[in-house]
Design brief:
Layout lengths: L10 H23 L5 H28 L7 H7 L4 H52 L1
Helix pairs in contact: 1-2, 2-3, 3-4
Length: 137
């Protein structure tokens, strides 16, 4: 069964969530680097982040649409990150890790269902042998 889609946030709530996340990240940087951010700079960074995310979302949608797909794939994300070698390398690495993990999960499911199937097959054979034995008596 597919997971239910998350309810859409209003643009205001989404903008507020981005602002909250940006402020948290900036606070970590401030503590780590012993600097301070003014409220105006935090608001500007949050707004810039929000607008950049909107641009990324539109670009990803266009990449998928251009490929005649309705689903955004990791290849679309890699294309988006193509100008940043370090980001592209990171996304590629994470994508490969996820693909490898998914393959391992599928293999485990196959082995699990195969061992259950094998066990059922042996139980069925035993039942058939018992009924043949009782027929011969």
């Amino acid at each position: 069964a597919a997971a239910e889609p998350r309810p859409r946030l209003s643009p205001q709530r989404l903008r507020a969530a981005v602002h909250y996340a940006v402020c948290g990240l900036c606070q970590e940087v401030a503590e780590d680097k012993a600097v301070q951010f003014s409220k105006q700079s935090l608001a500007a960074i949050a707004e810039l982040t929000f607008r950049q995310c909107e641009t990324f979302a539109r670009d990803l949608e266009m990449f998928a649409r251009h490929a005649k797909r309705s689903t955004i794939t990791t290849e679309d994300v890699k294309l988006l990150a193509r100008r940043s070698n370090s980001l592209l390398k990171y996304i590629t690495q994470k994508s490969e890790e996820l693909a490898s993990s998914n393959m391992e999960q599928k293999e485990k499911k196959k082995k699990s269902s195969a061992s259950k199937g094998g066990r059922m097959h042996r139980e069925e054979e035993a039942a058939v042998t018992e009924s043949e034995d009782s027929n011969m008596a």
